[in-house]
Amino acid sequence: MTFALLAAAVAAVAYGVSTVMQAVAMRRAHGLAGVAQPLVVAALVLDGAAWLLSLVALDRLPLFVVQAVLAASVVVVVLLARVVLDAPTRRRDVAAVVVVVLALVALAGGSGEQPASAPPQGFDASMIAASVLLAVVTAVAYAKGSPALLALLSGLGFSGAAIAARGAHGADDLLGTVLQPLTVAILVCGACGVLASLRALERGSAGSIAAVLSVTEVVVPGAVGLVVLGDVVREGWAVPVALGLVAALGACWVLATSPASATAEEAPVASAPA
Question: Which residues cross the membrane (predicted)?
Protein backbone atom coordinates (compact mmCIF):
# COMPACT_ATOMS: atom_id res chain seq x y z
CA MET A 1 0.00 0.00 0.00
CA THR A 2 2.82 2.41 0.87
CA PHE A 3 4.46 1.97 -2.53
CA ALA A 4 1.14 2.47 -4.31
CA LEU A 5 0.48 5.68 -2.38
CA LEU A 6 3.99 6.90 -3.15
CA ALA A 7 3.45 6.19 -6.84
CA ALA A 8 0.20 8.17 -6.80
CA ALA A 9 1.86 11.07 -4.95
CA VAL A 10 4.77 11.26 -7.41
CA ALA A 11 2.27 11.12 -10.28
CA ALA A 12 0.39 14.06 -8.75
CA VAL A 13 3.60 16.10 -8.60
CA ALA A 14 4.36 15.28 -12.24
CA TYR A 15 0.84 16.22 -13.32
CA GLY A 16 1.11 19.54 -11.49
CA VAL A 17 4.39 20.44 -13.18
CA SER A 18 2.99 19.36 -16.54
CA THR A 19 -0.10 21.54 -16.10
CA VAL A 20 2.03 24.65 -15.65
CA MET A 21 4.15 23.73 -18.68
CA GLN A 22 1.09 23.20 -20.88
CA ALA A 23 -0.64 26.38 -19.72
CA VAL A 24 2.40 28.47 -20.64
CA ALA A 25 2.96 26.66 -23.93
CA MET A 26 -0.60 27.02 -25.20
CA ARG A 27 -0.16 30.80 -25.11
CA ARG A 28 2.48 30.45 -27.83
CA ALA A 29 0.37 28.61 -30.39
CA HIS A 30 -3.24 27.71 -31.03
CA GLY A 31 -5.13 24.59 -32.00
CA LEU A 32 -3.39 21.38 -32.95
CA ALA A 33 -0.21 23.34 -33.74
CA GLY A 34 0.29 23.79 -30.02
CA VAL A 35 0.64 20.05 -29.51
CA ALA A 36 3.89 20.06 -31.50
CA GLN A 37 5.60 22.65 -29.31
CA PRO A 38 8.66 21.32 -27.45
CA LEU A 39 7.26 22.46 -24.11
CA VAL A 40 3.99 20.64 -24.75
CA VAL A 41 5.82 17.53 -25.95
CA ALA A 42 7.92 17.55 -22.78
CA ALA A 43 4.79 18.06 -20.68
CA LEU A 44 3.06 15.15 -22.41
CA VAL A 45 6.07 12.93 -21.77
CA LEU A 46 5.84 13.91 -18.12
CA ASP A 47 2.11 13.16 -18.24
CA GLY A 48 2.89 9.74 -19.68
CA ALA A 49 5.31 8.96 -16.86
CA ALA A 50 2.74 10.14 -14.33
CA TRP A 51 0.08 7.98 -15.94
CA LEU A 52 2.29 4.89 -15.69
CA LEU A 53 2.78 5.62 -12.01
CA SER A 54 -0.97 5.98 -11.60
CA LEU A 55 -1.39 2.50 -13.09
CA VAL A 56 0.87 1.16 -10.36
CA ALA A 57 -1.35 2.85 -7.78
CA LEU A 58 -4.59 1.67 -9.42
CA ASP A 59 -3.40 -1.91 -9.22
CA ARG A 60 -3.45 -1.78 -5.41
CA LEU A 61 -5.69 1.10 -4.37
CA PRO A 62 -9.35 1.95 -5.05
CA LEU A 63 -10.22 4.61 -7.57
CA PHE A 64 -11.53 7.12 -5.03
CA VAL A 65 -8.16 7.20 -3.27
CA VAL A 66 -5.93 7.31 -6.35
CA GLN A 67 -8.01 9.98 -8.07
CA ALA A 68 -8.13 12.14 -4.95
CA VAL A 69 -4.35 11.99 -4.67
CA LEU A 70 -3.96 12.87 -8.34
CA ALA A 71 -6.38 15.77 -7.99
CA ALA A 72 -4.02 17.18 -5.38
CA SER A 73 -1.69 18.05 -8.25
CA VAL A 74 -3.23 21.52 -8.02
CA VAL A 75 -1.24 21.90 -4.78
CA VAL A 76 1.90 21.53 -6.87
CA VAL A 77 0.67 24.16 -9.33
CA VAL A 78 0.14 26.71 -6.55
CA LEU A 79 3.41 25.95 -4.75
CA LEU A 80 5.39 25.94 -7.99
CA ALA A 81 3.94 29.30 -8.96
CA ARG A 82 4.91 30.74 -5.58
CA VAL A 83 8.47 29.42 -5.58
CA VAL A 84 9.36 29.87 -9.24
CA LEU A 85 7.19 32.82 -10.28
CA ASP A 86 6.93 34.62 -6.93
CA ALA A 87 3.14 34.40 -7.15
CA PRO A 88 0.99 35.68 -4.27
CA THR A 89 -0.44 33.10 -1.88
CA ARG A 90 -3.49 33.74 0.26
CA ARG A 91 -3.94 32.46 3.80
CA ARG A 92 -6.80 30.34 2.56
CA ASP A 93 -4.41 28.71 0.07
CA VAL A 94 -2.09 27.66 2.88
CA ALA A 95 -5.07 26.33 4.83
CA ALA A 96 -6.28 24.49 1.73
CA VAL A 97 -2.92 22.75 1.34
CA VAL A 98 -3.15 21.53 4.94
CA VAL A 99 -6.74 20.37 4.37
CA VAL A 100 -5.73 18.43 1.26
CA VAL A 101 -2.98 16.61 3.13
CA LEU A 102 -5.25 15.72 6.07
CA ALA A 103 -8.05 14.65 3.72
CA LEU A 104 -5.73 12.34 1.82
CA VAL A 105 -4.60 10.77 5.08
CA ALA A 106 -8.24 10.06 5.94
CA LEU A 107 -8.89 8.58 2.51
CA ALA A 108 -5.85 6.33 2.72
CA GLY A 109 -6.85 5.16 6.17
CA GLY A 110 -10.37 4.40 5.03
CA SER A 111 -9.39 2.27 2.08
CA GLY A 112 -6.40 0.09 2.78
CA GLU A 113 -4.86 -2.00 0.04
CA GLN A 114 -7.44 -3.28 -2.42
CA PRO A 115 -6.07 -5.22 -5.40
CA ALA A 116 -8.19 -4.70 -8.49
CA SER A 117 -10.90 -7.31 -9.00
CA ALA A 118 -12.33 -8.62 -12.26
CA PRO A 119 -14.91 -6.21 -13.76
CA PRO A 120 -18.53 -7.32 -14.28
CA GLN A 121 -19.76 -8.85 -17.51
CA GLY A 122 -20.29 -6.29 -20.25
CA PHE A 123 -17.89 -3.80 -18.70
CA ASP A 124 -15.41 -3.91 -21.60
CA ALA A 125 -18.05 -3.31 -24.26
CA SER A 126 -19.64 -0.51 -22.24
CA MET A 127 -16.32 1.27 -21.76
CA ILE A 128 -15.40 1.01 -25.44
CA ALA A 129 -18.81 2.35 -26.48
CA ALA A 130 -18.52 5.20 -23.97
CA SER A 131 -15.04 6.07 -25.23
CA VAL A 132 -16.24 6.24 -28.84
CA LEU A 133 -19.14 8.48 -27.82
CA LEU A 134 -16.77 10.71 -25.88
CA ALA A 135 -14.48 10.96 -28.91
CA VAL A 136 -17.36 12.09 -31.10
CA VAL A 137 -18.52 14.73 -28.61
CA THR A 138 -14.95 15.95 -28.08
CA ALA A 139 -14.40 16.28 -31.83
CA VAL A 140 -17.54 18.40 -32.14
CA ALA A 141 -16.74 20.55 -29.10
CA TYR A 142 -13.11 21.08 -30.14
CA ALA A 143 -14.09 23.64 -32.77
CA LYS A 144 -16.42 25.91 -30.81
CA GLY A 145 -16.85 24.43 -27.35
CA SER A 146 -16.57 26.65 -24.28
CA PRO A 147 -13.61 26.24 -21.90
CA ALA A 148 -15.95 24.82 -19.24
CA LEU A 149 -17.34 22.20 -21.62
CA LEU A 150 -13.88 21.27 -22.85
CA ALA A 151 -12.63 20.99 -19.26
CA LEU A 152 -15.56 18.71 -18.43
CA LEU A 153 -14.86 16.54 -21.48
CA SER A 154 -11.20 16.41 -20.52
CA GLY A 155 -12.12 15.33 -17.01
CA LEU A 156 -14.43 12.65 -18.39
CA GLY A 157 -11.66 11.47 -20.71
CA PHE A 158 -9.12 11.11 -17.93
CA SER A 159 -11.80 9.56 -15.73
CA GLY A 160 -12.64 7.01 -18.41
CA ALA A 161 -8.98 6.12 -18.81
CA ALA A 162 -8.62 5.60 -15.05
CA ILE A 163 -11.80 3.51 -14.84
CA ALA A 164 -10.74 1.34 -17.77
CA ALA A 165 -7.25 0.94 -16.30
CA ARG A 166 -8.65 -0.19 -12.95
CA GLY A 167 -10.90 -2.69 -14.76
CA ALA A 168 -8.03 -3.86 -16.93
CA HIS A 169 -5.85 -4.51 -13.91
CA GLY A 170 -8.55 -6.70 -12.49
CA ALA A 171 -8.71 -8.79 -15.63
CA ASP A 172 -5.18 -10.15 -16.03
CA ASP A 173 -1.45 -9.58 -15.57
CA LEU A 174 0.50 -6.67 -17.12
CA LEU A 175 0.78 -8.27 -20.57
CA GLY A 176 -2.88 -9.18 -20.50
CA THR A 177 -3.72 -5.62 -19.51
CA VAL A 178 -1.92 -4.22 -22.55
CA LEU A 179 -3.42 -6.71 -25.00
CA GLN A 180 -7.03 -6.76 -23.83
CA PRO A 181 -9.89 -4.75 -25.43
CA LEU A 182 -9.98 -2.20 -22.60
CA THR A 183 -6.72 -0.81 -23.94
CA VAL A 184 -8.80 0.78 -26.70
CA ALA A 185 -10.91 2.62 -24.14
CA ILE A 186 -7.82 3.70 -22.20
CA LEU A 187 -6.13 5.15 -25.29
CA VAL A 188 -9.24 6.82 -26.73
CA CYS A 189 -10.30 8.34 -23.41
CA GLY A 190 -6.75 9.47 -22.68
CA ALA A 191 -6.44 11.13 -26.09
CA CYS A 192 -9.77 12.92 -25.59
CA GLY A 193 -8.61 14.10 -22.19
CA VAL A 194 -5.34 15.51 -23.52
CA LEU A 195 -6.82 17.26 -26.57
CA ALA A 196 -9.77 18.72 -24.68
CA SER A 197 -7.47 19.90 -21.89
CA LEU A 198 -5.09 21.66 -24.27
CA ARG A 199 -7.99 23.33 -26.07
CA ALA A 200 -9.52 24.43 -22.78
CA LEU A 201 -6.19 25.88 -21.60
CA GLU A 202 -5.94 27.77 -24.88
CA ARG A 203 -9.33 29.41 -24.37
CA GLY A 204 -9.87 29.69 -20.63
CA SER A 205 -8.39 30.16 -17.19
CA ALA A 206 -6.03 27.44 -16.03
CA GLY A 207 -7.38 27.78 -12.50
CA SER A 208 -11.03 27.24 -13.37
CA ILE A 209 -10.11 24.43 -15.73
CA ALA A 210 -8.08 22.71 -13.02
CA ALA A 211 -11.03 23.07 -10.64
CA VAL A 212 -13.42 21.36 -13.06
CA LEU A 213 -10.88 18.62 -13.71
CA SER A 214 -10.32 18.04 -9.99
CA VAL A 215 -13.99 17.52 -9.25
CA THR A 216 -14.73 15.42 -12.34
CA GLU A 217 -11.71 13.16 -11.96
CA VAL A 218 -12.53 12.36 -8.34
CA VAL A 219 -16.32 12.07 -8.38
CA VAL A 220 -16.86 10.08 -11.59
CA PRO A 221 -14.18 7.37 -11.18
CA GLY A 222 -14.78 7.17 -7.44
CA ALA A 223 -18.49 6.52 -7.94
CA VAL A 224 -17.90 3.95 -10.68
CA GLY A 225 -15.28 2.20 -8.58
CA LEU A 226 -17.61 1.87 -5.60
CA VAL A 227 -20.73 0.94 -7.55
CA VAL A 228 -19.33 -1.16 -10.41
CA LEU A 229 -15.76 -2.30 -9.77
CA GLY A 230 -16.03 -3.53 -6.21
CA ASP A 231 -14.04 -0.82 -4.43
CA VAL A 232 -15.00 -0.65 -0.77
CA VAL A 233 -14.56 1.59 2.25
CA ARG A 234 -13.29 0.05 5.46
CA GLU A 235 -15.95 -0.72 8.03
CA GLY A 236 -16.48 2.27 10.29
CA TRP A 237 -14.65 4.64 7.94
CA ALA A 238 -17.55 5.71 5.73
CA VAL A 239 -18.02 9.09 7.42
CA PRO A 240 -14.29 10.02 7.56
CA VAL A 241 -13.87 9.01 3.92
CA ALA A 242 -16.92 11.00 2.82
CA LEU A 243 -15.75 14.05 4.76
CA GLY A 244 -12.25 13.58 3.37
CA LEU A 245 -13.53 13.54 -0.19
CA VAL A 246 -15.63 16.66 0.31
CA ALA A 247 -12.77 18.44 2.07
CA ALA A 248 -10.25 17.45 -0.59
CA LEU A 249 -12.52 18.61 -3.40
CA GLY A 250 -13.27 21.90 -1.68
CA ALA A 251 -9.61 22.57 -0.95
CA CYS A 252 -8.59 21.68 -4.50
CA TRP A 253 -11.21 24.11 -5.81
CA VAL A 254 -9.82 26.88 -3.57
CA LEU A 255 -6.30 26.20 -4.79
CA ALA A 256 -7.36 25.96 -8.42
CA THR A 257 -8.87 29.45 -8.23
CA SER A 258 -5.90 30.87 -6.32
CA PRO A 259 -4.02 33.92 -7.68
CA ALA A 260 -0.98 31.65 -7.78
CA SER A 261 -2.72 29.46 -10.35
CA ALA A 262 -3.52 32.53 -12.42
CA THR A 263 0.10 33.66 -12.23
CA ALA A 264 1.27 30.27 -13.45
CA GLU A 265 -1.13 30.55 -16.36
CA GLU A 266 -0.06 34.07 -17.27
CA ALA A 267 3.69 33.54 -16.85
CA PRO A 268 5.49 35.70 -19.40
CA VAL A 269 7.17 33.91 -22.26
CA ALA A 270 10.77 34.90 -22.79
CA SER A 271 11.29 36.58 -26.13
CA ALA A 272 13.94 35.40 -28.50
CA PRO A 273 17.11 37.50 -28.62
CA ALA A 274 17.29 39.96 -31.49
Answer: 6-26, 38-58, 64-85, 94-111, 123-142, 149-168, 174-198, 210-230, 236-256
H or E element, residue 56: helix 38-58
As a whole number of angstroms, the distance between CA 247 and CA 96 comes to 9
Supply the pTM of this predicted model. Answer: 0.78
Give burial (CB, 10 Å; 0-12/13-18/19+) of 53. Answer: buried
Find out whether 245 and 62 touch, Cβ atoms under 8 Å: no
Q: What is the 3-state secondary structure (H, E, C) of 142-190?
A: HHHCCHHHHHHHHHHHHHHHHHHHHHHHCCCCHHHHHHCCHHHHHHHHH
Three-state DSSP class for residue 119: coil
- Give me the tens of pLDDT residue by residue for the chain, a chain 274 residues long: 678 889 999 999 998 888 777 767 766 666 556 666 788 888 889 988 998 898 888 888 888 889 888 888 888 878 877 776 667 778 888 898 888 888 888 887 787 677 777 888 999 999 999 999 999 999 999 988 998 899 999 999 999 999 998 888 755 555 666 678 888 999 999 999 989 988 887 887 766 777 788 888 888 998 899 889 888 888 888 888 889 888 888 888 888 777 766 655 555 444 434 3
Give buried/exposed letters for 142-166 (b at 16+ CB in 10 A, else e).
beebebebbbbbbbbbbbbbbbbbb
CA angle 166, 7, 126 (to 5 degrees): 15
